[in-house]
Fold this protein.
Amino acid sequence: MPELPEVETITRDLKNYIVDYTFSEIWTDSPKQIYPSLRVLKTKLTGQKITGVFRAGKWVVIEIANLKYLAIHLRMSGRLLLRKASDIEDKYCHLLFGLFKDKTKKELRFCDIRKFGKVCYFSDPEELKKKIYTGLGPEPFSKKCNLEYFGLILKNKANIKTVLLDQKLISGLGNIYVNEALFLAGISPIRAAEGLQNQEIFCLRNSIVQVLKKGIKYRGASSKDRGYVDLFGKSGNYQSHFLVYEKEKKPCPKGCGGMVKYQKIGGRGSFWCERCQR
DNA sequence: ACCTAAACCTGGGCGC
DNA sequence: TGCGCCCAGGTTTAGG
């Protein structure tokens, strides 16, 4: 259930803790989640050094010596945990990478109750581009994601919420942060994107940047038992700052006297205040 | 071309 | 205690 801030938190920690480590043994009990195969992963990664880690939308990308890549998508229930080899087993661990640097050993464990997550090996930057970046719109914090671009993607008959969740148009937003951003911007999730005024587009863009930054500041949202935790198994704290998400029937935090409404929109749970969000 | 629903999976929580 | 049903923050695919 990780969205941009959760993936960003994991990525930053990975960058600090696994760069310069070398892959040793690799184990899985869920080969379906691996692209192209466990065999390729073992052949191509064993003995290779990690040179960098970065995020692309909701993907964690681990860069390996000679421009090879390991791209990981956590989908709904995926977790990445960095453990000592001697640490007790993690529940629902389906893929495990042994790592070492000099005499220090670690384990990068990919855990995933629902097995929706994906771990992909790409043999060059071209393949990474083709398989990952082609499906991703610009990063919300990037220069490319300016007002002009927002105006462009919002020329869309679909409702605003569906547009913002579309990774091809803008990458990294998920259900939580869209709910929160629309509340901040005072825009109803059921509005058609194409009906937004310039002032509203301006406000929406600012709100998106604001909620994402706040999400990163609090190291992500861990609102459900089986939800997101960071690389060390620790919960984030953004859920304590939710304004409308999971606040059904609670008073509107703007104090308008209305109540937070819940309804499914495009199959996704949506929370908003009908008085403040038009 | 477009939108919706189902599928991918599992386990926790709820009502009976 | 146990069964059946519903739910989940993501994404893809099948069907209308």
Observations:
- DSSP finds seven helices and eleven strands in chain A.
- The first helix of chain A runs from residue 4 to 18.
